[in-house]
Design brief:
Layout: H1 2-10, H2 27-34, H3 38-45, E1 73-74, H4 91-109, H5 118-143, H6 158-161, H7 168-185, H8 199-221, H9 224-242, H10 252-261, E2 271-275, H11 286-291, E3 298-299, H12 301-304, E4 323-324, E5 334-335, H13 337-342, H14 345-348, E6 351-355, E7 383-385, H15 395-398, E8 408-412, H16 413-426, H17 430-444, H18 463-475, H19 482-489, E9 506-510, E10 531-534, H20 554-559
Antiparallel strand pairs: 1-3, 2-8, 4-5, 6-7, 9-10
Length: 569
């Protein structure tokens, strides 16, 4: 609760910046009046908890489910590139440099603070560097070349303020050095907490960042030595967490889903860090967005086809047709329970067993306490997302942007296991890659890794790497916007071109529009009166190589003509 309150307070304090240089006249305040006690330092670092959004706040959805610029889910119409033209400003650019300055202010003033324990001082230094490193990573991931800033800038720092951007590799090396410092110096403070920054969170960040850089170096830079270095660092960080002893996968397929739809994650052994939500204080809209009365975003046919059979072998890509139910509430309505029964059990924990579309809306969790007024749910693709929906929560809260209080994961063990598996696969270590994939498959209730020689492999990688990537896609379905960032680091962003890969805008198979009660004024089928639901109604999403990096905002070029622009923009 303390962290929630402080997080809200942090957003109200006017420590803001628009650019690299912050001209707000608060330096004398912070130096002489603020950094005088350990309590003030703790309060200052509570700003850092605003960084990881989990499910967002209020009417936002954070990094889960609602991100549709990928091939996992489709929206009626078409989600396209977030940047079509060079913008005047960019929220990531300004926000990251604001937060970098915030971290640097702490580092430059902390020596004035009287700490009772030297270890606590080292913790806050490590925390500031961890935070600074993460912010630089967000910049590199989105923009490539940027500025490494390790001090509070003044007008005298013309080499940064008015000079060219620095090479992304230099920035990455510096930020990983910051993260490594954090791993080595955070000590045991908050080590048992799952809501506070600690050495485990530092290793989780290192695992994610180093996997990104290792694969980016391999597939974009063609630098095998750099790739190997960072992949091994990802493994080291991942295994430190896997072998720590205090983190364990939640058992069973239902345990998997409990990571995402629990009202309280305090006792969840898989969580490394999560965000606590409380109605009336801090809440989100993820449940509302996946179960409300407005048509929701659905799983794509492309994603559906990625799920294996329970024995780890390939499913027939044409074996995806629903049938009309014969009993009870499902009688005469299209269902896919037989398909879910045969496939990877995680699929049944992620989507509904019935098909819900315009003309065939359904009430999820019919008869549950407090569900008497629940609205019928319709889905763009027919495949309704149930992964984040908690049935115990009354519908008046489930279907309200200001009432969702399920706790949100930020870092958890499954991602770390996936990172280790992928890094080992990229280094050609099949045995270790299989070991970690099998941890997740055993938890899901299916057989271990098989190299299936999948004809759908369109990424030009080995069977081992393809299957590890499949595992990542399935396990992290709708999570962290991971699919988008993974396609970027793998140099596979062209897979989001809908002209080349139409299945990403398609959904469930409809046998007959008339028999299955499809409103053809609202639902487009690939074969006219039957076929797959087609979410794309006109334009295609066309990939261009420039989409790997966002454009540098024109406002920054006006301030600094030497900043340059990313290729193609």
């Amino acid at each position: 609760m303390k962290k929630i309150i402080l997080s809200l307070m942090a957003g109200m304090v006017l420590f803001t910046s628009c650019d690299l240089l912050n001209n707000d006249p608060y330096d004398s305040f912070t130096k002489s009046n603020f950094f005088t006690s350990e309590t003030n330092v703790e309060m200052y670092t509570n700003y850092f908890y605003n960084e990881f959004s989990a499910y967002g706040t209020g009417g936002a959805s954070g990094d889960f489910y609602f991100n549709t610029l990928n091939d996992n889910q489709a929206v009626t119409g078409l989600s396209t590139w977030g940047f079509k033209n060079v913008p005047a400003s960019d929220g990531t650019w300004s926000a990251c440099y604001t937060e970098i300055r915030r971290a640097n202010i702490l580092l430059e003033n902390i020596d004035a603070v009287p700490f009772q324990k030297e270890a606590d001082k080292q913790y806050y230094i490590a925390l500031a560097r961890l935070y600074r490193g993460w912010q630089h990573f967000c910049l590199v991931r989105k923009f490539g070349d940027c500025y490494w800033v390790d001090k509070t800038l003044t007008k005298a720092d013309e080499d940064i303020l008015y000079g060219p951007r620095q090479n992304r590799n230099l920035v990455m090396d510096n930020l990983v050095a910051d993260i490594n410092f954090a791993v080595e110096n955070m000590g045991t403070k908050n080590a048992d907490s799952r809501t506070a920054y600690n050495v485990h969170v530092a290793n989780a960040i290192k695992s994610r960042v180093c996997l990104f850089e290792g694969t980016y170096a391999k597939y974009h830079l063609k630098d095998n030595a750099r790739a190997e270095k960072y992949l091994n660092e990802a493994i080291a960080a991942s295994e430190a967490l896997i072998t720590a002893g205090q983190f364990k996968l939640t058992p069973g397929a239902e345990g998997y889903r409990a990571n995402y739809n629990s009202l309280d994650l305090a006792g969840n052994t898989e969580m490394i860090m999560y965000k606590k939500y409380v109605v009336g204080l801090l809440y989100h809209a993820t449940q509302d967005y996946c179960c409300g009365s407005t048509q929701t975003h659905g799983l794509s046919k492309s994603a559906f086809n990625a799920y294996l059979l329970k024995d780890g072998t390939l499913a027939d890509p044409n074996d995806d047709h629903g049938v009309l139910g014969t009993e009870g509430y499902d009688a005469g309505k299209p269902v896919i329970y037989h398909l879910l029964e045969a496939r990877d059990p995680r699929l049944a924990q992620q989507i509904d067993g019935y098909l819900g579309y315009v003309g065939n809306g359904r009430v999820r969790y019919e008869g549950m306490p407090g569900q008497e007024t629940a609205a019928e749910n319709t889905v763009s693709t027919g495949y309704g997302i149930t992964k984040f929906d908690e049935p115990v929560t009354p519908s008046k809260f489930r279907q309200a942007t200001n009432g969702n209080e399920t706790d949100g994961p930020i870092f958890w063990l499954a991602e770390i296991v996936l990172n280790a598996a992928e890094a080992y696969a990229e280094l050609g270590n099949q045995a270790q890659a299989k070991k970690y994939v099998d941890m997740l498959r055993t938890r899901a209730g299916m057989e271990g890794l098989k190299l299936n020689n999948d004809p759908a492999n369109n990424m030009g990688v080995s069977d081992l790497i393809w299957e590890v990537r499949r595992e990542r896609r399935v396990e992290l379905m709708f999570d962290l916007n991971d699919r988008y960032w993974s396609l970027i680091r793998w140099h596979q962003l062209d897979k989001l071109d809908t002209q080349k890969y139409p299945e990403q805008t398609q959904g469930a198979w409809i046998e007959s529009a008339e028999a299955w009660n499809v409103d053809l004024n609202s639902v487009v089928l690939t074969e006219g009166d039957h076929g797959y639901i087609e979410c794309r109604t006109k334009d295609h999403r066309i990939f261009e190589e420039k989409h790997y990096l966002a454009p540098i905002p024109s406002g920054q070029a006006t301030l600094n003509p030497q900043i340059g622009q990313n290729p193609g923009w």
